[in-house]
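Case study.
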Amino acid sequence: MDNIERSGILLAGISHAYSGRKALDNVSLALPLGQSMALLGPNGAGKSTLLNILCGLVKPDKGNAYLAGVDISRHSDIARRQMGVVFQDDSLDDRLSAWENLEFHGLVYGMDRKSRARRIDEVLELVELTEWAENPVRSFSGGMKRRLEIARALMHEPKILILDEPTVGLDAQTRAKIWSYLNQQRRDHALTVFVTTHYIEEAESCDLICVIDKGIIQATDSPSALKSRFGKGIVRCLPRDAETRRRLLAKWPAAQQLADDRLGITIESKAMLDDLLIEFGAALKEIQIDEPSLETVFLAITGKEMREREEINPKGRAKRNKRI
Amino acid sequence: MTKLSILRRGIYAIWLREIMRSFRDRGQLIGGVSRPIIWLLILGIGLNPYFRGEAYGEVRFVIPFTYLQFLFPAVIVLNIMYTSILFAVSMIWDREFGFLREVLVSPLPRWAVLFGKILGGSSVATMHGFLVLILARFADVTLSWNQVGVALCLMFLLAFGLTSFGVILAARVRSFEGFGVFSNTIILPLYFCSSSVFPLDPSLTRTQMAATYPEWLVVLVQINPITYAVDALRGALIGYNQFDPWLGPGIIACGAVLFFTIALVDFKRQ
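After joint prediction, the assembly is written out as follows.
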């Protein structure tokens, strides 16, 4: 397999089960060096398992995973040096200062004193935290912590950066800032980026998108290719009563049940939309037409909405609250 | 970059973090200082006049030490026990607040991560034991540098074993709440049943001993490994052993190896 060499991340036939329940089923995936990929999937789709396998925290039951051409389970120390990880929840020591956290990271990654000092300065400057170097992390805001974590993950100059929902719970301005750092690194250092996200615009800016559901990779392609393949508009409608609902489902059996009793019907053609409006127009409480977008692609592939998950399971935020 | 220097840096970093955290954690530091003061200066001085090997109004045996001298090595063990076993809190903290994952995805092998942490925890515990050693003058214990050296080695080995024991506990506890119970259900019973605050006189025969202390208490003390740790330190600091002088150091060393091995197996499985 000569493509192992050229790939940033390569998964070959990965299967994994937790106490009999299959989390990943024969997952194969390739991300070329220097490119970026967003992993999308509803909760319980196997995203975390996949990430844990990539980070070497979980050993898959079957299959091989390679990071920059290195087998993760066989040469884990070499593979790990090539990779930087940003976790969904904070993993900084908040009793230490920003500088101390970075120094610790450098030591643990075996960097010598000179390169530690140089890289600490560089990454702190990258994420604009130079002035805060001596402050304890416990005094940082959520956005600052995130920036510091990204600085830390980049400190040992990894070839591959793995980010698990790096911007969840942050405001739009901080999110944009974080992506500007990441994009700068991608440009300047040909960094390979693998990210899971809930935000459609973040996925949109990646080279590749991988949609996973029920432990199986459902589609991997560029955002534009995915849109032209699955991208059909969707009508979201809220029937006035059960009878209308039944009739709608009879006419379009493929309609998807969405949150808040809404139905999602794929717009196959213009005529179909006309049909719907003429026949049911008066019997609908609400109607909304979604243009083809990654959101509708996601809905078409998984039958679930991207946004819905965030409301149902604000994992990151709930955990963060507990900590306070 | 050789593999060894990478390992050394990693273990050093993890060790250093524990040391720094211990200095920043005021509560732990205050505990480390106040415990010996309460036990040694208040309990020790208070009970000092009543310590004469007397039973039922009759002097049965003579211990050639004052109660303060007798108690002194035990308080060192107590201070080490608290810090070591409560080190589990630091383990749980790392696990719950995500810091552990930062080290687990690093190139450092797991055994080195655990070794660094336990080394850090035992250094802090040894330091807390040393705080008691400073009070030697108040307990009428005169020490040569040689004795201090031997005692520090024993204290470190003991701390290493007990810290590993704390880590084993941490792996079995889900939350901080569950851990608060430990100091009361493990540390103090172990301490009281270790011949720390009263001697078992080996010069008496078993029947005579049973006449002084009930059988169950004698058995409890004899099966408690901390008894032998206290005995080892008594041997080193005041030259008084209730058991074979090699038994204590031997049990401390075996404990350190055994508990670290179990902790490592646990940690690799996590």
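Observations recorded in class. The interface with chain A takes residues 1, 5-7, 9-10, 12-14, 16-17, 20-21, 24-25, 97-109 of chain B (CB under 8 Å). Residues 69 and 140 of chain B are 6 Å apart (CA to CA). We will return to this complex in the next lecture.
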